Amino acid sequence: MRYDLKVLRDDEIVAAERLVVTDVRDIWSRIASMADQVDEPGCQICVTEEAGGIAILIGATAARGLFKPPRVRTPTVIDGRFGRRRAIA
Description:
Layout: E1 2-9, E2 12-20, H1 24-37, E3 43-49, E4 54-59, H2 60-67, E5 76-79, E6 84-87
Antiparallel strand pairs: 1-2, 1-3, 3-4, 5-6
Helix pairs in contact: 1-2
């Protein structure tokens, strides 16, 4: 199926491209890449299908938040004698 992706800022098209995909996951990975390229506030990514209906409409900031890999947390313990935290190796 064919989809059109557009980055919109105040109803102005900032970037656009057309994709032919067989799996919806391919669209989401492309949305993630487009969101990484947009650093202006207020931008939206609009995905329309062949018939012209909106399939996905998401803010660029929200898209970056969805696809950001989770932070790796280092477990810590509290050293009771000094009250300091230290990383577990």
